[in-house]
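Teaching note: in complex prediction, the entire set of molecules is handled at once rather than each chain in isolation. The prompt given to students was simply: 'Predict the structure of this complex.' The entities are:
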Amino acid sequence: MTDHFLTDATDPTDPTDHVDLPGLLRGELDNATVNDTRAHLETCAECRGLLVEAAAGHAMLLRAVRSQGPVRRAPALAHAPAASDLPPPPTPRRTARHLVPLLVAAFVVAAALVVGLLRPWSTEEPAPPAATGRSATLEPLAGDGGGIVSLTVSGRATRMVIETHDLPPLDAGQFYYAWLLDPATNKMLPLGQVGAGAEGRSSFDLPAGLLDAYSAIDVSLEDDDGDPQHSPTSVLRATYA
Amino acid sequence: MDRGQSIGVRLARRDESALEDAYADYGPSVLAYLRRYVGADEAEDVLQRTFLDIWRHAARYDPQERFSGWLFTIAHRRAVDTLRTRRHPVVDVDTVRELMGEDGRESLDRFADAADVRQALARLPEHERETLRLAYFEELTQAEIAARLDVPLGTVKARSSRGLRRLSTNMRANQETGAQ
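The expected output is the structure of the full assembly:
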């Protein structure tokens, strides 16, 4: 093999490591060295083969980093809990159904503990003077209940406030959930939980333009079953556009 | 059958060591995924529930399916549960949309891919693994890695090059054996 000029990458134990492919792929080489490397690759089939392999590894690692972020920003990654820290495996007779009430209770307690800690900006903020508002009435689709949806446009964001009343009582593990809806296509976008039961008030900050893609608000009755899709039961609906 | 699928099969046989392997191989990646959507305060709790679920429902794992994909689907469901039951005065719609909307599946697949890469990285020779970890996950240059490890720059380049090639070869082999 001749003319493998990047000798500083050479390892005597591995004669194939003669071109700085990691430096090339990660943008660590100056322009002149990139051009020299390119000229070499154009004439060296062996190095082109190595480049293909290295590029595949580089692409996978780069995508993994972009998905997960650098380790230093997520310290817990370096200290995965030991298997012994896991809850004990369930006994054969114990089923998920028995744990649902416990998990729901745990969710509620955990959520109550972190309210106000995770989103310090979520406290009520005074609306800017230029804000404009409108509202729509939530009508029951079946049974009791009603409500009102208020939209306040301020700059590039819209705050949506959903207030509900007289909704049927919830069973354990159930909750009401709000969606944006385009009735023409049935396209839906999940917003979040509405209220704590029959009556409630929830606020959502919506990016600019999002409301334009939909025209209605739908409130559904959901079960805590892990299924992120809309349940078959809609209880309230309002058209805002 | 790749390592992940093997773990899934062992879980289905109620092999507790498989749960330990799953936790060691995929726990950090699942935790990173959960931290993104439910926040650092709740992520570890949801992680525990996710692995409790894979133990409880291991019999449902299809060995023809990518194990990381199945695992992250369960983690996704537990994250959705957590967001749905969270009671904030104002909900961050962008976060909910990314997790539950049209982008949710793509995000899940991306994290499953990343978990497979991290698993393959963990199986490289130690000196190659450490060099690539510093280069990609700590974003150090090769010169900085050489200084950090107190080895010649040429050695870092050689380890990086061989590590990248070995990683891609192993990932391709995993994909081929996983498809069989």
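Point out the following to students. Chain B has a mean pLDDT of 86. Chain B is about 80% helix and 0% strand.
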